[in-house]
Amino acid sequence: MAAKKNTVRGEEPESNLPSWFNEVAGIALIGIGVILTLAMITYTPHDMPILGIGGVEDNEPNVPRENSIGVVGALLSYFVLIVFGAAGYLLPIGMVWLGVAYAFMGAKFSRRTVIGLFCLVLTGSCLLGVTEFLTGWAQRNHIMYPGGFAGYGIGTKVLEALLNKTGAIILLVVLYLIGTIMLTGLNPIQFTKVCWAKFKEWKEQRANDKERLAEKESKRAAREAERVARQTERDAAKAEAKEKAEAEKARVKEEKEKKAAKAKEKKEKEEKANPQVEMDLKEIPKPQIIDSSQRKKPKLDPGAKPFEKKKKQDGISLATDGYEDYELPGFDLLAYDDSEPEQAGADQGELLSVQKTIVDTLKAFGVDVTAGDITRGPTITRYEVYPSMGLRVSRITQLEADIARATKAERINILAPIPGKDTVGIEIANDDKVAVPLRELLQDDSFTSAKKKIPLALGKDVYGNTVIGDLAAMPHLLVAGATGAGKSVCINSIITSILFKFSPDELRFIMVDPKVVEMQVYSQLPHLVVPVVTDPNKVVAALRWVVNEMEKRYRLFAKCGVRNFDSFNNRPRPEKEEEPVVEAEVAEEAEPEEEPDPEVIESIARALEDGELGPSMVDEDDALDLEDEESEIPDRFPYIVVIIDELADLMQTAPADVEMNIARIAQKARAAGIHLIIATQTPRADVVTGIIKANIPSRIAFQVSSALDSRVILDTKGADKLVGKGDMLYLPPGSAKLERAQGAFVSDEEVEAIVDHCAKQSEQKFEESVQQSIDSGGSSEEGDDNELSDADEECLLKCIEVITTEQKASTSLLQRRLRLGYTRAARMMDILEERNMIGPADGAKPRDIYI
């Protein structure tokens, strides 16, 4: 007992092993045991004649080896069998048992189980050696002894020599049972007692069951006799009831016929009185399969253009030197593989099979529908079904997951109902998606229609119709979607569509690209007012210039007595008096004075250098004095399109200023010919705020990750069901109906070719000073206080009043008290420091006040 306690105490430190040790050891033992079991089960001596092992006369082994574990398995099983004989099969079985106990039964590693396993295998080997059992098996497998060398050496040569065969067998049986108990933990004596008790209980239960069965048989016979008697009585009663039911049925039928005749007569009277009281259901048209995914054949004329160059009218055009000979791009700049074979049409059998699956699935859930049209688009296929009378369409939408399972679709979208139709549409993504080239859209008649002032080629809908938007009618556009869903390609197609119609004197761009790389391809465009703005800190100055330009245009509209951009450009001009013909030199000297919008460059330079709106800060009297000059009223204004590629980055830099300026532009700039296109891949509520959404009704949503993002963009779900790669939902202006379309595709090579074409036509018209101002972040290097406007001086006086009252100076203080943006408040602080009214900043210490 003492030894046992010592053993237990010796095993206590094993509890300090890591928690994963038992599982790892168990899995390892199971794996080794399974490998060894397979090797021994498939052992054959003909795999062994290598290096003289195996005792087989033929020295050529089996090729390939019959052993499941190969050469290693053959060698391993041979050495186990040669050492332990047939008892060696107990070794892998015991290892698997220990592995299962360690890994899945919560057993702890102990020396008792290892010793038990070794004792079990060794005593089994000795028993086989003493009894000489399985000698024939050993000879067939070329094993010298049935118990191996261990059984022969220990069992025969030691135990049998000392105790004779009988004593050795008794001792080995006892040791074998002890090894079994140590390995498995089972008590054979108690196990036998439990089995005997269970046997006696089973025997008594069987006797009781026989008695109960006999009693049940007697009761069953009595019940059967009683049942026969009752059945006879019921048959008689049933026959009587049947006669009564037939008589009642005849009476009810007669009453129904009378009621039907009365109802028919009443209906005929009502129809005569009011023919539209009840109309027959209209007949469901015959279902059609419409394949709108095929490309249209393009115009192959290499010189073809969507728009021809407009004739310039004297005194009206903004054209200056470099724009007179500007040629619009042609279709030859857009790639189109003419050698591409015609695409195979849709497999009608497959489409009908999917539609039948949808109808059968709905009927299986008790929703009765009739098959309608099938429309295969570039990206999705729409299956239409007609709900039966009285069926709620909400029951169909509830089965969206079941329909997706039945059709094996990755994701589906259910339109219940399809806007403008009396059917429910089930949209499933196509396995083979068809790209929509931009060239095909530009060659469509709807793109060149005169009704669209600024046409945008967006894509094709599920019916194969081109989706052409009009930026002038939108008047602003929000494009949002997850990364890789097609947002950047959509922006490229929009810009390319504009370049195909407008020359630099008709439309100008202001591009904001915080990501730096998206719009650098357009850096050489002559349409740019300023170079592409990439620094988020400089965007506020550019937006303020746009607001200033908008206000300036409205003042000129009021002076000219017109209401909007189109009225100003198309207003009647006073006829110029004929002047005497002068020499060519005089005419040439007059031409440079007709530079287009000289204030555009100057006002942008001032706005970006000061970080504020230049002309708008001038007093109204001074502004009117400037407007009195004849040169201040141009003949025409160009469109201005502001494109912001990533709004989220700007909202993190200066959210208040960016949101305020975007809201002002979106609210008022339409009539001034200024339009805004905003793109973001982070459609969060703090990025696309309510103010921005309220002023930008037209939106394009690409695939997003959740229904919440879809609601932020479209105020409804649906964008989370898109399949990506240009699949989009478009909300047209003045409409609440979403249009699903496949976006147009334009490659980077095509964009570069178009930009190169435009760049070769004319040079860019912004000055070097504007470029330097943008690069310097919109700050003035000279810091001349004389350049401050009267409004800035007034704001500066208010700042001085706040500082003298509080006796402290900080940017946040000016922001709170005067409700200034961070940029303007920081600029006021810099001016005050330059005028020696406050001290310089010194870390977290407050500034010194000198006034």
From TrEMBL:
Give the membrane topology, semicolon-separated if more than one: Multi-pass membrane protein
Q: Where is the composition biased (Acidic residues)?
A: 577-599
The record ties this protein, via Gene3D superfamilies, to: 3.30.980.40, P-loop containing nucleotide triphosphate hydrolases (3.40.50.300), Winged helix-like DNA-binding domain superfamily/Winged helix DNA-binding domain (1.10.10.10)
Similarity annotation: Belongs to the FtsK/SpoIIIE/SftA family.
What PROSITE patterns does the database record attribute to this sequence?
Answer: FTSK
One Pfam family of this protein, by short name?
Answer: FtsK_gamma
Tell me the InterPro entries matching this sequence: FtsK/SpoIIIE/SftA, FtsK_4TM, FtsK_alpha, FtsK_dom, Ftsk_gamma, P-loop_NTPase, WH-like_DNA-bd_sf, WH_DNA-bd_sf
| Keywords per UniProt | ATP-binding, Cell cycle, Cell division, Cell membrane, Chromosome partition, DNA-binding, Membrane, Nucleotide-binding, Transmembrane, Transmembrane helix
The segments labelled Disordered in the record are 208-314, 568-599, 763-788
Q: Does the keyword Ion transport apply?
A: no
What sections of the protein cross the membrane? Answer: 20-41, 75-102, 114-137, 143-162, 169-189
SUPFAM superfamilies from the entry? Answer: P-loop containing nucleoside triphosphate hydrolases (SSF52540), Winged helix' DNA-binding domain (SSF46785)
Species assigned in the record: Rubritalea tangerina
Where in or outside the cell is it found?
A: Cell membrane
The protein in question is named DNA translocase FtsK
> FtsK domain: from which residue to which, for each copy?
464-711
User: Which PANTHER family does the record match to this protein?
Assistant: DNA TRANSLOCASE FTSK, SPORULATION PROTEIN RELATED
